[in-house]
Inverse folding.
């Protein structure tokens, strides 16, 4: 996933949930570093959740997760990692750690 | 105001004609027709504006937007922030309408969507799609991907495999997939059909990783896919 594709995925996710998007895991570095390592650029997936209401991560999964028309159309996708998307063992809290806010808070979609 | 290239509608018509011809052609010719279709699909672009899609489907944009808002027609958000219809979705709907022919009545799009619903009802039996034991060791997303691929495996034919190969080549040429994964998918897609079906349905750690870069995206209709995701999630989290 190139930097502009990463930005596209984050903005699309923000538009779906009308919220600010938090990127989880190593892909978060793409939002901060234009010269990201090649290994990151070759990933198809970015893990995200909405900052305001992490439970709505499922909506991102539904609209642009793996196997979705978004994935088929663009070749990359966003995986929502909110509480419902994870198994019971870690279902209570959104993931912590390498998280970073990205995307526009309320994207306008025409 | 978006300006449509004047020949997009014609290009889409030609894509439909080629798809019909592929169904009638022998394997060698089918491969040639698919190459031409791939060229035309690139020419048409990955998405079509809602206005143009509505025109081609014979409905007003207001009516079309209602179907979209109800989740019956897929749209994607483009890099420019527009909601547009994936070319594959539009072509699928147009094909459905043409197959229905006179049975589509006065509201062919509505009839096509009803036909999709009938097919997605077949997705209900999850027991055969997800493992009974060991669910707690999986993330929900992994079980969803497993169920998705097991359903794809049940429907697998040469056309679906060809499409997956083409998608993989495109992703690879655009540098979107790591060679480590693309090489493994190429190896799987070179197998005979039954072995591809078995491979993509396997509940192993390796396949769980590999399914995250699957070229079988877009095989199920959006109704089927969403229904499957919801059903797996409800079952696991119940």
């Amino acid at each position: 996933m190139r930097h502009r594709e990463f930005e596209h995925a984050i903005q699309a996710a923000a538009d779906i949930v009308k919220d600010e998007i938090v990127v989880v895991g190593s892909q978060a570095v793409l939002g901060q570093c234009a010269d990201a390592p090649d290994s990151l650029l070759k990933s198809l997936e970015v893990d995200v959740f909405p900052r305001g209401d992490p439970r709505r991560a499922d909506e991102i999964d539904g609209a642009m997760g793996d196997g979705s028309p978004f994935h088929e159309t663009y070749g990359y996708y966003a995986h929502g990692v909110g509480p419902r998307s994870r198994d019971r063992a870690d279902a209570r809290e959104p993931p912590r750690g390498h998280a970073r806010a990205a995307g526009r808070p309320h994207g306008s979609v025409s | 105001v978006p300006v449509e290239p004047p020949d997009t509608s014609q290009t889409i018509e030609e894509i439909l004609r080629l798809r019909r011809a592929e169904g009638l052609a022998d394997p060698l010719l089918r491969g040639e027709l698919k190459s031409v279709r791939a060229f035309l699909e690139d020419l048409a672009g990955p998405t079509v504006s809602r206005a143009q899609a509505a025109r081609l489907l014979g409905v007003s944009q207001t009516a079309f937007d209602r179907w979209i808002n109800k989740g019956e027609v897929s749209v994607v958000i483009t890099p420019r922030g527009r909601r547009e219809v994936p070319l594959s979705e539009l072509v699928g709907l147009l094909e459905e309408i043409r197959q229905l022919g006179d049975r589509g009545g006065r509201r062919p799009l509505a009839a096509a969507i009803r036909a999709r619903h009938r097919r997605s009802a077949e997705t209900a039996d999850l027991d055969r799609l997800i493992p009974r034991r060991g669910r707690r060791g999986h993330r929900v997303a992994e079980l969803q991907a497993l169920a998705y691929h097991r359903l794809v495996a049940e429907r697998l034919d040469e056309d679906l495999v060809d499409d997956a190969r083409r998608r993989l080549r495109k992703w690879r040429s655009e540098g979107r997939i790591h060679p480590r994964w693309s090489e493994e998918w190429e190896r799987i897609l070179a197998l005979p059909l039954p072995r591809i079906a078995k491979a993509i349905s396997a509940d192993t750690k390796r396949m769980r990783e590999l399914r995250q870069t699957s070229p079988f995206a877009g095989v199920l209709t959006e109704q089927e896919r969403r229904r499957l995701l919801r059903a797996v999630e409800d079952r696991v989290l119940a």
The longest strand of chain A covers residues 45-50. Helices of chain A lie at 3-17, 38-41, 57-64, 69-74. Confidence is low (pLDDT under 50) at residues 86-110 of chain A. The first helix of chain A runs from residue 3 to 17.
